[in-house]
């Protein structure tokens, strides 16, 4: 068995992963604080829907964290989907800035946008290898009928 040595992870990819994880921290903290507040106050209208929505947000955040981990390990698909998420976030920042409703929370999508831009630098391209070319299969012979006893196809003898 041969040991294939992979080149070390580029610093830009490491910085991008850290930026992504740092952009996820505020949402986890926000949801945790909100759930603790609801539990402490025993708000009359705060029931299962608030807990479920908090758990959904935490689940999505954990999923994005897992995708960031895959991206940092060299997944081109993860890099693409993180870029899509970052693009949506940056678009929301542009809308907030245009309408004048921007708050400190615009830093999260901006950090995600910067992180995604770092993963598309030419110097990190070798960290995300292209998949091998697909091999075409030989075409199968045309089915002309089905065997009524076994249900197997009867193929043309060309």
Structural notes for this entry:
This protein has 158 residues and is mainly alpha-helical. Helices cover 59% and strands 4% of the residues. The protein is built from four helices and two strands, in the order H-H-H-H-E-E. The chain has helices at 11-41, 48-72, 76-99, 107-119, and strands at residues 143-146, 153-155. Strands 1-2 form a two-stranded antiparallel ribbon. Strand 1 (143-146) and strand 2 (153-155) form a beta hairpin. It is extended. The mean pLDDT is 86.
Report the end-to-end length measured between terminal Cα atoms: 43 Å
Shape: extended
The neighbouring-strand order within the major sheet is: 1-2
Structural class: mainly alpha
Taken as a percent bin, the fraction of beta residues is under 5%
- In DSSP terms (H or I, runs of 4 or more residues), the helix count works out at 4
Low-confidence stretches: none
Mean pLDDT: 86
Oligomeric state of shown chains: single chain
Reading the helices and strands in chain order gives: HHHHEE
Helix proportion: 55-70%
Total DSSP E strands = 2
| Major beta-sheet overview | 2 strands, antiparallel
Gyration radius from CA atoms, angstroms: 25 Å
What is the secondary structure topology, with strand pairs?
Layout: H1 11-41, H2 48-72, H3 76-99, H4 107-119, E1 143-146, E2 153-155
Antiparallel strand pairs: 1-2
Identify the notable features of this structure and list them briefly:
4% strand; two-stranded antiparallel ribbon; 59% helix; single chain; 4 helices; 158 residues
Would you summarize the structure shown here?
The protein is mainly α and 158 residues long. The protein has helices at 11-41, 48-72, 76-99, 107-119, and strands at residues 143-146, 153-155.
């Amino acid at each position: 068995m041969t040991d294939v040595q992979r080149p070390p992870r580029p610093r830009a990819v490491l910085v991008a992963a850290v930026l992504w994880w740092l952009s996820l921290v505020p949402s986890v903290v926000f949801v945790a604080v909100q759930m603790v507040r609801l539990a402490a106050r025993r708000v009359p209208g705060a029931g299962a829907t608030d807990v479920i929505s908090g758990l959904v947000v935490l689940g999505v955040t954990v999923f994005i964290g897992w995708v960031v981990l895959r991206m940092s390990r060299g997944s081109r698909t993860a890099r693409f989907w993180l870029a899509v998420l970052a693009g949506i976030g940056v678009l929301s920042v542009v809308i907030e800035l245009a309408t004048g409703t921007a708050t400190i929370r615009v830093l999260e999508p901006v950090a995600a946008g910067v992180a995604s831009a770092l993963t598309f630098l030419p110097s990190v391209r070798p960290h995300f290898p292209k998949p091998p070319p697909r091999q075409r299969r030989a075409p199968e012979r045309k089915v002309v009928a089905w065997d009524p006893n076994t249900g197997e196809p009867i193929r043309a003898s060309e």
